[in-house]
Amino acid sequence: MNAKQLIEKAEEVRVREHKLEPSLRLRTTDEIYRFIHDEGIVSFLGGNELPSFINAILGRSWKPSAKGFSGWTDWWSVKISGQLVARVSREIEGKDDILATRMFRRTKTFVSNEIWPLLDPIVKHHIDLVQRGEILSSLEQRVLKTIQAEGSIRTDQLRKKLRLEAKENNSKFHRALTNLESYALIIGVEDPKPEKHLHANIWQTWETRTRNGIDLPGLSYEKALGKLLEKTIDACVLAREDQVRKWFQWGSDMEAVKEELLKEGLAVRAGSFLVTPRVARDS
After folding, report:
1. 93: which residues sit within 8 A by CB, 6+ positions away?
2. For the segment 103-123, what is each residue's pLDDT rounded down to a tens digit?
3. Which of 5, 41, 126, 275 can pair with 1 through a Cys bridge, CB separation 3.0 to 4.6 Å?
């Protein structure tokens, strides 16, 4: 197939696998759990290259817009197995075999435990960089060390420990959390039993959250990057090549890895796009 045909075929596969038609949409919690494990990496809101939790329950593409929160009414009241989407999402985050990070484009991303062995060497590499003072701001390091020391701590208690309760600290505190999540150094799950009117995450480090979920022998950092990028391209099915460097916080390390995948046939270039090789094989 030429590039145009390959892209068209990939678009068809993407619609089917990402559940982008009403007849394909996910209707039960069991279907959602299976979807996340089948795909491995799933964006929560969508509007990016990954399969999306919200897209899949709506059966169409959806992304945040200038309408702001009002746009969320498109899916906020949808029920899955008799439960509102927000409740289902919270249950997913709390599953032993699924976690929520911001590793992909700094947006909420569900990651199946099948992907954890690929992320583990990457997280450990960045922990080494933290210890050498090569990444993270002083505040981000304080946040990480506090979560490490506590083992598990809720957002409001974390702010209190760090003496960042004043409103003027809101922005820098939440920016620090987001940056740590983008490296998958910390993992949050919404408190299932909050006090009245309080919605807050309970935070753990990567090591604490995944300690019983990684059985495979460790990969090198470089090998883990390659396998993670291969899996991500496969989940996306189709993606603009110039966007790959924007996917991960450690994106600058991915350029050489991407070229190696192309050389080995583990990704296919079609014009300005990258396509999973499954599309070419299945045609």
Report:
1. 99, 100, 110, 188, 189, 190
2. 999 999 999 999 999 999 999
3. 5
Residues 122 and 187 in one domain: yes
100/104 Cα distance (integer angstroms): 11
Same domain, 225 and 206: no
Task: State the pLDDT confidence band at 87, using cuts at 50, 70 and 90.
Answer: confident
Task: Name the pairing type of β-strands 201-205 and 107-112.
Answer: unpaired
In whole angstroms, give the CA distance from residue 228 to residue 181.
17
Helix locations, the chain, DSSP H: 3-17, 29-39, 53-58, 73-76, 85-93, 116-131, 138-150, 155-162, 170-182, 206-210, 221-236, 254-264, 277-281
Within-domain flag for 6: no
Domain count across the chain: 3
Round to whole Å and give the CA distance between 93 and 101.
9
pTM above 0.85, yes or no: yes
pLDDT in tens, 9-25: 999 999 999 999 999 99
Residue 200 lies in a domain: yes
Judgement on whether residues 84 and 122 belong to the same structural domain of the protein: no
Helix or strand or coil: residue 1?
coil
Average pLDDT value for residue range 56-62:
92
Range of the domain at 257: 221-281
Query: Domain check: are 164 and 244 in the same one?
Result: no
Give the per-residue pLDDT at 197. 52
Whether 11 maps to a domain, the answer reads no
CATH number of the domain within which 165 lies: 1.10.10.10
